[in-house]
Amino acid sequence: MSYYNQKLTFVLALVCALFLTTGASAQELTSNGGFETGDTSDWEDLTTPPQTFSITSDANSGSWAAEIFNNVDSGAAAVVKQANIGVGTVSPGDLIEISFAAKGSFAQGGVAFAEFFSELDGGGTSSSEILSGGPLALTDQYQDFSFTTTAGPDVSGGVTLQFNAATGAVPGSTSVLFIDDASVRIVPEPTSIALFGLGCLGALVRRRR
């Protein structure tokens, strides 16, 4: 085999190895999901005073996490989200893995939800889901949560991971939610990985011949 062919074979093998070790892994869509910028940048904050969305050093990992505080005791929602992420990257029907760490404290009917939306360009959704099927079962210690779902039939506006610290419609209701390590990832289909791997193997065999 000539030096040129040896070099080309090496480059092809390197490309295959890089794909199988990195490209085949899930593709991250969130930005600042762990709040390690020390602020809430890249998150959309829909809270209204006296509700707050702020950074805290009480983290699950790293230096920072976020706290949503809601003491509006009239059945109010305090919502923050990673909104319209993955536009042009996520496709209808993609397998999506969502994970985060959370803890909370609640009184008088306060609860917290994690929700996932497939967004339409220009507004509206093609699908929505309450992760875990209802309020998150939280304690005063961080817990790791992981969910696998699929993107809706139209994701022209990307996808959204939303957290809601909601109060009950009774006096004294509060909801305090801590979130950290939020991640939304596109999981490659096993068949696609296998086909690419077979293609690489075939190309390498042909090069060696």
Brief overview:
With 209 residues, this protein is an alpha+beta fold. The chain has helices at 3-23, 190-208, and strands at residues 27-28, 44-45, 52-56, 65-70, 77-85, 95-107, 111-119, 125-130, 143-150, 159-166, 174-187.
Query: Which radius of gyration do the C-alpha atoms yield?
Result: 22 Å
Series of H and E elements: HEEEEEEEEEEEH
Give the averaged pLDDT, no decimals: 87
Uncertain regions spanning at least 5 consecutive residues: 15-23, 191-198
End-to-end C-alpha gap: 9 Å
> Treating each run of at least 4 consecutive H or I residues as one helix, how many helices?
2
Specify the biggest β-sheet.
Answer: 6 strands, antiparallel
Regarding quaternary structure, what we see is: single chain
**Number of beta-strand segments:** 11
Share in helix = 10-25%
Describe how the helices and strands are arranged.
Elements lengths: L2 H21 L3 E2 L15 E2 L6 E5 L8 E6 L6 E9 L9 E13 L3 E9 L5 E6 L12 E8 L8 E8 L7 E14 L2 H19 L1
Helix pairs in contact: 1-2
Description:
This protein has 209 residues and is an alpha+beta fold. The chain is 19% helix and 39% strand. It is built from two helices and eleven strands. It has helices spanning 3-23, 190-208; strands at 27-28, 44-45, 52-56, 65-70, 77-85, 95-107, 111-119, 125-130, 143-150, 159-166, 174-187. The strands form two sheets. Strands 1, 3, 4, 6, 9 and 11 form a six-stranded antiparallel sheet that branches. It has a five-stranded antiparallel sheet with strand order 2-5-10-7-8, with no helix packed on it. Helix 1 (3-23) packs antiparallel against helix 2. The protein is globular, with a radius of gyration of 22 Å. Mean pLDDT is 87; it is low at 15-23 and 191-198.
